[in-house]
């Protein structure tokens, strides 16, 4: 459906580009080295990349459409990560998108154009939007771009994003998965994810986080491996309210304690390669209640921690399987 829309739009944009008399093109958008399938040899006029509404509704840059994929033949040719972003993300793009939905520009573009603008199409030129998935892997991003409101799955791996702002995902009420693996994130606003009531998977692996923000109770999987997390960087009882959490992967960090309490539905707890030195008798099991069975928690990894697991024989009675780690 969406690709059909985009195809239609591509045709429209090309018609528009060839029909309009070329303006004096000063800067040409840098084209990536990768060969594009269809529009490579078209000689389209150059336009400055200007998305502001102030310039009489001329906020579409047809030269950008040189870089569109041939959506007819998408599956075999898709190459995530070979598109370079436009020279610069214009300031206030988000505000522009909101304005566009409220008051149409003086020279009103066709409805199709307008609805696509509202969906955040400029991002879909930098990234690949397939249905409600947005793929922004390896796109040289230094911040989260404005995303289509319908975005369900976001992949922005292998970029150089440093900071996640509270506003980045604020309008996105359908997100189920955010994957920001391998960026430079060292700071996340505490409210960046809290309100995302449909978010099931949050993947922040391979970043520089010393702390975790507040988390939504819908989370099933949290992956923050290979960061700089310290126990003081976790909210007190950070995971207690996450009743749906099944996978908590915090290996290769600087934690010196197992975060408690662990939600009852947890199936997999990865804490290998941290600085955990001790285990409390109530960490996994309720020491006063020997009928307590933690059926789900089958996969606990504590290897690579300076802890002698043999010293805590009473800590594992409720578990279906004892943790992996050092039993000297
Ligand atoms: C680990 O704990 C066990 C049980 O108390 C003990 O016998 C063993 O010597 C300890 N190993 C080390 C390396 O401390």
Question: Could you outline the blueprint of secondary structure elements for this entry?
Answer:
Blueprint: H1 2-19, H2 74-77, H3 93-102, H4 111-118, H5 121-126, E1 128-130, E2 133-135, E3 153-155, E4 163-164, E5 177-179, E6 187-188, E7 201-203, E8 221-223, E9 247-249, E10 268-270, E11 299-301
Parallel strand pairs: 2-3, 3-5, 4-6, 5-7, 7-8, 8-9, 9-10, 10-11
Antiparallel strand pairs: 1-2
Helix pairs in contact: 3-4
Could you walk me through the main structural features you see in this protein, from its secondary elements to its overall organization?
Pfam families: LRR_1, LRR_8. It is found in: Secreted, Extracellular space, Extracellular matrix. InterPro entries: Leu-rich_rpt (IPR001611), Leu-rich_rpt_typical-subtyp (IPR003591), LRR_dom_sf (IPR032675), LRRNT (IPR000372), Mimecan/Epiphycan/Opticin (IPR043547). It is built from five helices and eleven strands. It has 328 residues and is mostly loops. Strands 1-2-3-5-7-8-9-10-11 form a nine-stranded mixed sheet. The site of 2-acetamido-2-deoxy-beta-D-glucopyranose has 4 residues, from loops.
Summarize the structure.
With 328 residues, the protein is mostly loops. Helix content is 14%, strand content 9%.
Provide tags for this entry.
binds 2-acetamido-2-deoxy-beta-D-glucopyranose; 9-stranded mixed β-sheet; 5 helices; two-stranded parallel sheet; disordered N terminus; little secondary structure; 328 residues
């Amino acid at each position: 459906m969406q690709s059909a829309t985009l195809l239609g739009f591509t045709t429209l944009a090309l018609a528009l580009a060839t029909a309009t008399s070329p303006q004096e093109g000063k800067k040409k958008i840098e084209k990536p080295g990768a060969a594009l399938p269809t529009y490579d040899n078209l000689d389209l006029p150059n336009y400055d990349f200007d998305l502001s509404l102030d310039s009489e509704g001329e906020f579409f840059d047809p030269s950008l459409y040189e870089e569109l994929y041939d959506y007819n033949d998408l599956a075999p040719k898709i190459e995530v990560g070979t598109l370079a972003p436009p020279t610069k993300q214009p300031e206030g793009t988000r505000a522009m998108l909101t304005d566009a939905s409220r008051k149409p520009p003086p020279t009103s573009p066709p409805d199709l154009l307008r609805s696509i603008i509202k969906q955040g199409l400029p991002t879909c030129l930098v990234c690949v939007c397939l249905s409600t998935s947005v793929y922004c892997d390896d796109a040289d991003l230094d911040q989260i771009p404005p995303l289509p409101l319908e975005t369900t799955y976001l992949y922005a791996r292998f970029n150089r994003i440093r900071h996640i702002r509270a506003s980045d995902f604020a309008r996105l009420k359908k997100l189920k998965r955010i994957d920001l693996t391998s960026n430079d994130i060292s700071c996340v606003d505490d409210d960046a994810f809290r309100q995302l009531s449909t978010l099931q998977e949050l993947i922040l692996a391979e970043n520089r986080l010393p702390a975790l923000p507040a988390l939504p109770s819908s989370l099933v999987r949290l992956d923050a491996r290979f960061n700089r997390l310290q126990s003081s960087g976790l909210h007190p009882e950070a995971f207690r309210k996450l009743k749906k959490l099944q996978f908590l992967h915090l290996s290769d960090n600087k934690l010196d304690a197992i975060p408690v309490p662990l939600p009852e539905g947890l199936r997999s707890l990865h804490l290998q390669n941290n600085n955990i030195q001790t285990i409390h008798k109530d960490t996994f099991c309720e020491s006063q209640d020997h009928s307590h069975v933690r059926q789900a928690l089958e996969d606990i990894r504590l290897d690579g921690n300076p802890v002698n697991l043999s010293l805590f024989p009473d800590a594992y009675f409720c578990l279906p399987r004892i943790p992996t780690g050092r039993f000297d």
